[in-house]
Amino acid sequence: MFNLYTTILAAYLIVLIISRKEEEKGPFRKMAAYVLRRQQSLQRFLAKGRHNWKRDLNRRQLEEKFRILQPSVAVNQQVRDHYITQYSLMLMVLFLGDLICLAVWISAHSNPLLMNGSTIERNPNGQGDIPIELSAQIVGEEEEIFDYLVEERVYTEQEAEALYEQAVNVLEDVIRGENESLEDVRRDLQLVTTLDGYPFEISWESSCYALVNVDGTVDNRDLTDGEIVTLTAHFCYEEQTWDYQLFVKVNPVVYTEKELLRKRLEELIHMQEEKTKHEERMTLPESLGEKEIVWQEIIEDSSGYFLLLILFASGVLYWGCGRELDRKLECRKRELLLDYPEIVNKLALYMGAGMTIRNAFFKMGEDYKKQSNQRKRYVYEEIAMVCYELQSGRSETEAYDRLGKRCQVQAYMKLSALLSQNIRKGSNDLLQMLRQEADNAFTERKGLAKKLGEEAGTKLLLPMMIMLCIVMVIIIIPAYFSFM
């Protein structure tokens, strides 16, 4: 494989050198242009005396697509750029892939486990076994492939004995921890179970577990004088064992001034507790020697967190109010669109019955006022505003123009422009135009209703997913506990 990878790289180098005079920019585009030119030459040579209709059909289809997309650019140039781009990408991917393959090959073969065809070097003790895949070929037989686990090196008895002698020399420095020496132990010991660089497993025994436990903890709080404790370390490796004894002197704990002061305060509180345990109240000690003690209760005050929560809630409410206004504006716009077919249809109906535009608006406004129990509708509120303006002496064209501007919806702007234009210029086709607009409005309303239905279905997805998760939890938890 190494020869294949290097051959591909050599081929790239040769093509790069040959294509250096191509007019394209970039090494891969230069190579792609050279390859394309050589390919076309080869195709022309092979096509002598016969016609490849399939290739010509594909080329004509490709030219037609480019002619539609960019008619201002020469088709042949677009096709050439298309092929050069394709070839350059293919060459770049192949080049990068070949480099990655070569790097992987080098990484896999840089540290071979099998040396000289038959030797495998073991890991030192403690570094684990080595998995290796081997193939065995015997003359005249089929190749056998199998996985094997080469175990780490095992020390001889003499080597293990020598390592034990080294281990006991460093053991004391390891286990003393923060103590100055094993002859003055006042803090916990580090009774390790293994030593770095040594293959032994170590277990411990103590002559006085109350003072020194096997986990290294030292309890010398009630100790008034130093005591000797014998620690026995049991070393184990394979079938060999050794015992090694250490003598440690546990001395009373030495307190710092701060620790001593705290201990005396704890003793005073305990004494005061004993004195007043039969009384209704406990009185704390008022002095330590000649120094007065000032006691204060540490109260966990969570009011600051509540203040932050309130500030956050206020910000959320402020943001929510702004969003609520936008939501209402959006609802108003949607309601105006939904009511638009009804308004146009009523105008066409009233005008078909012989009413003028002005009277049709007055009729819709009066009908809306009579329905006092009906909720507020934005479009009829705007119609009522038009009626008020007409009654106050405003001209019809201006009133209808103001209606479209107030609604701020394209459909109503179109309607107001239609009504204003009819008043200014006069037209006998207004009724027919209104009926056509009503038909179009109903069609658009169907599309809007379908869109709203799809949005409602999308909004229900999250609650449905939550309900699904709850149902799964209700089913899985009892099943889980039934198997325990």
> Which class best fits the helix and strand makeup?
mainly alpha
User: How much of the sequence is in beta strands?
Assistant: 5-15%
Approximate shape: flat
Secondary-structure element order, N to C: HHHHEEEEHEEEHEEHHHHHHH
N/C terminus separation? 54 Å
Helix count, DSSP H or I runs of 4 or more residues: 13
Calculate Rg over CA atoms: 47 Å
Helix content: 55-70%
Tell me, rounded to a whole number, the average pLDDT. Answer: 80
Q: How is the main sheet built?
A: 3 strands, antiparallel
Strand order in the largest sheet: 5-6-7
Using DSSP, what is the number of strands? 9
Poorly predicted parts: none
Structural summary, described in words:
The structure is a single chain. This protein has 484 residues and is mainly α. The protein has 13 helices and 9 strands. It has helices spanning 2-18, 27-46, 53-69, 75-110, 157-175, 257-275, 303-352, 357-370, 378-391, 396-407, 410-425, 430-459, 461-483, and strands at residues 114-115, 119-120, 130-136, 144-150, 201-206, 227-237, 240-250, 287-288, 291-292. The strands form 4 sheets. A 3-stranded antiparallel sheet has the order 5-6-7. It has a two-stranded antiparallel sheet with strand order 1-2. Strands 3-4 form a two-stranded antiparallel sheet. β8 and β9 (291-292) form a beta hairpin. It is flat, with a radius of gyration of 47 Å. It starts with a helix and ends with a helix. The relative contact order is 0.04. The model has no long low-confidence stretch (mean pLDDT 80).
Notable characteristics:
484 residues; 10% strand; single chain; mainly alpha; 13 helices; three-stranded antiparallel β-sheet
